[in-house]
Amino acid sequence: MAPGPGPSPPASSEAVARRFRGQPRRDTTHELAVRRRRHARGVRYRVDVRPCAATRARGDLVWKGRRLVVFLDGCFWHACPVYGHLPLANRDWWAEKLAGNVARDRRADAVLRDEGWRVLRFREHEDPDEVADAICAALGARRR
Fold first, then answer.
1. pLDDT (tens digit, 9 = 90+) per residue, 97-106?
2. Distance between CA 60 and CA 25 in Å, rounded?
3. Rounded to two decimals, what is the model's pTM?
């Protein structure tokens, strides 16, 4: 595995440090919105699960029996081309960090597909109803 960008540089301010410390790893607003819509449609799932031993990636929504894993990626942390951005402070470090996150996502996708999994990725700016519809379609489930 390639090394990361090195130790985190100091935050540009205490407010920025607080904001980053407060970022949840799971149960984000978008994840909860999509999960509510999935649950309301009667489709059950597992949350924050490692789909298989071949990767450390943890799917946001996982159906092991159907070999489907869904990732609900944050625009900042996964370098969304529409809403992602590089902070002004420590710009080079962040560019390397976010590029590493994207590369890790691509590696996880490849490993999961090689293991026979279907992988769906959505961005946090995508409409939760549309995301839920796409997941339903992938599962072959009826919409309620």
1. 999 999 999 9
2. 10
3. 0.84
